[in-house]
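User: Can you help me understand a structure? I only have the sequence.
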Amino acid sequence: MAAPPTDPNLGLVPAPATASGGEGSVVVPDGTPLVCAPELAPAARWWRRVIDEAFAVTLLPVQAPAQAPVRPPAQAPARLPAGGTAVVLDLDPALPVGGYRLETGGRTALVHAACADLAGAHAAAQTLRQLAGPQAFRRAASGAPLVLPVGTVQDAPRFPWRGVLLDVARHFLPKADVLRFVDLAAAHHLNVLQLHLTDDQGWRVEIERYPRLTEVGGWRRESTVGTWRTGTPDGQPHGGWYTKSDLREIVAYARERGVTVVPEIDVPGHVEAAVAAYPELGTRKVPHEVRTTWGVSTDVLDPSPEALAFFRDVLDEVCEVFDAPWVALGGDEVPTTLWRASPQVVARAARLGLVDDAGEPDVARLHGWFLARLAAHLRAHGRRAVVWDEAFGPDLPADAVVTCWRGWAVGARALAAGHDVVMAPEQSVYLDHRQSDHPGEPVPVGFVRTLEDVHGFEPFPAGMDVPDGPGRLLGVQAQVWTEHLDSARRVDYATFPRLAAFAEAAWTSTLPGRRGPCTPATTAFVERLRRDHLPRLDAAGVEHRPLDGPRPWQTRPGVAGHPRDLDAELAAGGWEGVGGWVEEPAPAGAPDDGKDGA
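Assistant: Let's start by predicting it. Here is the structure, written out as tokens:
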């Protein structure tokens, strides 16, 4: 169903900064010229492919002169065929970074998109796809014409970093599913995909120098179904990894859609898969298997020169494959239980001058020391380290980006200390958390985070004193952890349509400040989603959660979760947040201990 003429957003998700509809519609026929500035060619190339597949409409590419002067909309673009019968993508550097101005049915062209840069062109192309209706999200033509409503859209992003994390370590997703996830992220104007490639339960990236990382660390003998506290093993081996060629393809595919892939290699915790492959990397240095349960393991790296050299080699190969300016090093959930029990590690901290206020060796500071050296190695490659907020402290280099997941206060402190920050609080934007108290909600872990809750997300709570520099708020990121999402279907259910709500909070700079359940802004969003956007997701084959609860086949009867009470935990923790884990002594002889965050 087309958006009603009174819809100020033209049915677009995320909502644009400004939009206005006109009367009638524009039909784009087969053979229409596509005039494009050379700098915007990737976005034009993508748009041509999409409409050729969905409508059997072939646009004829015409390259505009390089660095052509920007023209007012009333003037005809260079080489524009007579009669305004072309689709035109122009450069206009006067627009905000990442922004665009789109006109359909104007005097000079069927479609005219003036774009600040390539990022703006990608956003304009995605907007055109949405305006073309659900058929534009299908892979084959049905005979329907390519029809666009007459109107204008002017838009630009709220945040430069609009990210989503996809965890492929806990449950591996085949390459085709990752490429599809890239498409869906791009369709929502998200521009960063953090790919969580390594963890205790699996190592998913080929490292040619260390083949056992995938040969041994790339699979586990079984998985836990449900929470580790009461869950049961499924007895089914699970595994998989990406070759370097696979990952180069993912990176190139994402780049063509305006998405930057940020690889995450998690150290010095969450490393049981690596330590299973190379036991000498661990603190205990004893053989063991890839972890089969969830939670936080006390088996962390020995913060030794040998481990540093090993992971420098790993990062060398990672930097060969990924072209992002950032590489994520993890740094979260690093129990020091085994470090404290090791005389060698304690002596190493003393030799390095890592002491506490009383002058005693402080093994906890080896956490920051280790990450700082890997960050320096990345800097030599021209990359910046990204770390989770547990790594924030005096030993963390100032150029490291801090992703804050445990709460808001640590984000404010990191900004005050001069770090660039990405806000990703589990209290708001962990999409593996349950979507309602519905008894059929599958594997009910974490906090209840409804669609309306996510739409109300703000990086910092209203009334919180957030420093104005010297660090920058780069943006925001949603997380899709997959301990309990064992297939692409389960990823779809947990992620959509809440990712659409997150995307609007991340992109749209003109949203009312008051959003969330029972607010006019969010009520209007849900109606726009129901009327306009869910049909697009349906056409794309996304098995999203229905707005009124799970379908029977989306439930997981009898699978134990671990629900948490957000109000109670916020009352206890306030803006400090409540995420993380509580370090406890490791049970004798039992490596599978710890606490999961859900």
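Now, to help you interpret it: The chain is about 30% helix and 15% strand. Residues 161-387+404-576 form a domain with the TIM Barrel fold (CATH 3.20.20.80). Let me know which part you'd like to focus on.
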